[in-house]
Known about the structure:
Strand content: over 45%
Shape: elongated
CATH class of the largest domain: Mainly Beta
Number of domains: 2
CATH topology of the largest domain: Porin
Helix content: 10-25%
Largest sheet: 11 strands, antiparallel
Structural class: mainly beta
CATH architecture of the largest domain: Beta Barrel
Radius of gyration: 30 Å
Amino acid sequence: MNKILKLPLFILLISYGISYGQxxxxxxxxxTVKNDTLQGQVDYRxxxxxxxxxxxxxxxxxxxxxxxxxxxxGYLNDKFFSSQITEGxxxxxxxxxxxxxxxxxxxxxxxxxxxxxxxHSNIQKIIIDGKMAAVEKSRWRGNLSYLLSDCLxxxxxxxxxxxxxxxxxxxxxxxxxxxxxxxxxEYKANKxxxxxxFGATIGVSKSDIRTANKPAAYSYLSDSYNSIDPSxxxxxxxxxxxxxxxxxxxxxxxxxxxxxSDLVRLDGIRTKFHxxxxxxxxxSIPLSVKYSFPEKKYCFYIxxxxxxxxxxxxxxxxxxEEVYGSVVNTYPERTIDIDDNQLGYWAGIGILKTYGKFxxxxxxxxxxxxxxxxxxxxxxxxxxxxxxxxxxK
Length: 393
């Protein structure tokens, strides 16, 4: 399994390195210390970077602003960051109202009137009856319940089991503001928590089975078998736009048929001929992590993960003949054991373009599946490179 995970992890490290040095300027604005709003473009970076500074592009060029230089900055119909909540740092403004919610690094802040409380969980490990246990020492639940209690009479029950996550806290703060009948603004309101995409794909693949470290008893097998096959499939992708809009989990189901054959000739006192035929019908289930690099017209992406193959059917034939002078001996037909289940890894790159409500993509993929032939004596791996056309909705 460690070998299977190497390539996906390598893909993620590369994507992180590329994204680290990549600028993604989007329409936005800054608010100056004089409370003037200047329109321009703001680099869409991770929150950890945005807590520290803002990179703003205007007609005058690119400028990096720090919390002591501007009151805040934001992206149109998206995130907003303010420098007026905590000293020396920007915080993300999630909800503004009679009760407001902010996010700062690894904690959340709630403000009501002039009171600002820190919703920070402190987990400590203690020994109870000789066993190690994790106990929450923070008082944030009680403090939050107190702030809510002047309108939400069941505030204690609402906060007793709440998880310290943005989605849960946002729902609770909105519920309070609605209860009070006060106006509020939820930033990222037009951005869903989860987004699903469904698609279909057709492709063509070049597969090969390569044998290695064969002992003499298996010399009848070729070093390589090749097949070019069409495939069809369906796929879905799950995004969390409010958390990681560039990363998706993608699952797929592919159906394909392969046909491999080759002739091996062994010369000696007796000349031997071995014809091998392998036909496979399989369902493939690739699961991957996909990282996208959005552009104005096209979106480039890379992905990597694991691939599971199940052979719906497998047909194998081994025909052998031996020629000695004018005498030809034909041996009984034999079969080769093929594993029904395989787990391997894969990686791919692609480019995507949006056409109205649909997205079209072209992707190139490489798959490596180990131990296709059930034998512990030698290695027989199946490798595949494919070109896929994908249509998302």
